[in-house]
Design a protein that fits this description.
With 333 residues, the chain is mainly α. It folds into two domains: 103 residues, DNA polymerase, domain 1, CATH 1.10.150; 180 residues, Intergrase catalytic core (hpI Integrase, Chain A). It is 49% helix and 6% strand. It is built from 14 helices and six strands. The strands form three sheets. It has a two-stranded antiparallel ribbon with strand order 1-4. Strands 2-3 form a two-stranded antiparallel ribbon. A two-stranded antiparallel sheet has the order 5-6. It is globular, with a radius of gyration of 23 Å. The N and C termini lie far apart (47 Å).
């Protein structure tokens, strides 16, 4: 049964099951080999996107295997793909989850059309069957409720009581810097020794890889406030092992950067019970930006130096979660 909690706008979909290697190897060998070729030679895909697309394409071809009699890819039609979209919608997937699966198949279709069609007779007349499809209707699973500064202080106080220094450093960074979880883990220990100019209350981080195509992605440098730097330093001093990176853990004698799953688990099992509401890593960037805007900081500066956006429309459209309650009350004065 789908799960529900007080912050949800609709029931949370059950995850599609993962396609194991054993299941994958039962699929039409031609389809399987084309997918593996695409994932191997496509240099435009970042490692993270490649991992996500691998899972998404396996799920699509498992649908083809079960529902479309494992037909070869060149025989798949728009009608077939519409069935797949309906299949995903019936399982309650969010618009973003469906959109991701649609884009993975579309990207694969483009590869077949632009590369494979020149060499393989059966694909000579192949066309991307996702083209011209209706856009995925947007929906939202959770109401976007930011973490307030008061809630941030509660989190920090509780983590300090527990002497959870890694948690303190992560929450301080996530709430104050504006970096995503995949960017946080790239901050290097060397930044703790960067010189601080007189009168300056922040340092500029090492270059990290932001979202973007290919291996390099978008190079970013973040402003890190001094008080956040102090929490990072507290963690590094107490972890009792060396590492090039700040946000790492040690298991079985091996030091590794924390993963996305670590952040998910930490938010779910540690932070959510403290605030008695759903806390997710994605909430922190918007909470950081909202808090700064509530303080009257300039939107252009926040958008450029904290949100790292090309224009203010993205910042205000997706990350400004102010409720403007006082302003709304004045409308009918």
């Amino acid at each position: 049964m789908a799960k529900i909690n007080k912050n949800m706008l609709r029931p949370l979909a059950e995850k599609l099951y993962e396609i194991t290697d054993e299941m994958w190897n039962t699929i039409n060998s031609e389809n399987r080999e084309l997918v593996e070729e695409y994932l191997t030679v496509n240099s435009q895909l970042s490692e993270k996107t490649k991992s996500v697309y691998t899972s998404a394409l396996r799920q699509f071809f498992w649908f083809v295997f079960e529902e479309l009699k494992d037909k070869p890819f060149y025989k798949i039609t728009k009608r077939d793909f519409l069935k797949y979209m309906s299949y995903l919608q019936e399982r309650g997937l969010s618009s973003s989850a469906i959109g991701l699966r649609k884009s993975s198949v579309s990207s694969f279709c483009n590869y077949i059309e632009n590369v494979v069609a020149d060499d393989v007779e059966e694909y000579k007349n192949f066309r991307n069957f996702t083209r011209g499809m209706p856009a995925v209707a947007k929906n939202q699973v959770y109401d976007k409720v930011p973490i307030t500064y008061e809630e941030y202080e509660i989190l920090m106080k509780e983590l300090e009581k527990k002497e959870d220094y890694l948690g303190l450093a992560w929450v301080a960074t996530a709430f104050n810097v504006g970096s995503r979880r995949a960017e946080i883990i790239q901050f290097k220990t060397e930044i703790l020794d960067y010189p601080i100019q007189e009168g300056q209350n922040y340092i500029i981080s090492n270059t990290v890889r932001g979202k973007g195509k290919s291996v390099d992605g978008k190079p970013l440098k973040f402003m890190i406030p001094i008080d956040v730097l102090n929490y990072m330093r507290l963690w590094v001093e107490n972890r009792k092992y060396d590492s090039e990176y700040i946000f790492v853990t040690k298991y079985g004698g091996k030091v590794k950067p924390i993963s996305a799953n670590w952040a998910n688990y930490f938010c779910k099992k540690t932070l959510s019970p403290i605030l008695n509401k759903r806390v997710h890593p994605h909430m922190f960037k918007a909470s950081c930006i909202t808090h700064l805007l509530e303080q009257g900081k300039d939107l252009k500066l926040i958008s450029k130096y904290v949100a790292q956006h090309e224009d203010t429309a993205t910042t205000s459209g997706f990350y400004d979660l102010r409720d403007f309650e006082e302003e709304k009350n004045s409308i009918f004065d």
